[in-house]
Amino acid sequence: MCHLRAWILPVVLVAFESRSLADSPFVRGDTNGDRAVDITDAIVLMQYLFGSREVPCLEALDVDEDAFGSLNVADAISLLDFLY
Ligand SMILES: [Ca+2]
Ligand SMILES: [Ca+2]
Prior knowledge:
- The chain is an all-alpha fold and 84 residues long.
- The chain has a single domain (23-83), classed as Type 1 dockerin domain, CATH 1.10.1330.10.
- Helix content is 45%, strand content 0%.
- The protein contains three helices and no strands.
- The protein has helices spanning 2-17, 39-49, 73-83.
- Residues 1-16 have low confidence and may be disordered.
- Bound molecules: calcium ion (2 copies).
- One calcium ion binds at residues 30, 32, 34, 36-37, 40-41.
């Protein structure tokens, strides 16, 4: 029984590690693609909305995950609400 546990635990840990943030295709709200979500992302989102910036992943900008997947000021407000 102990041998079974010793074998299962590393497999479970590897399974959880494989779902880490680094392996996900994008982080919702990480608008600049640096794998962190902070105030810079809200600024980048607003810059994108007003046409002065390109972003690496449009899905990351849909912070509020509305039914239509639309990108607008509500996403920036949701991001700021999440941060503060
Ligand atoms: Ca970021
Ligand atoms: Ca949205």
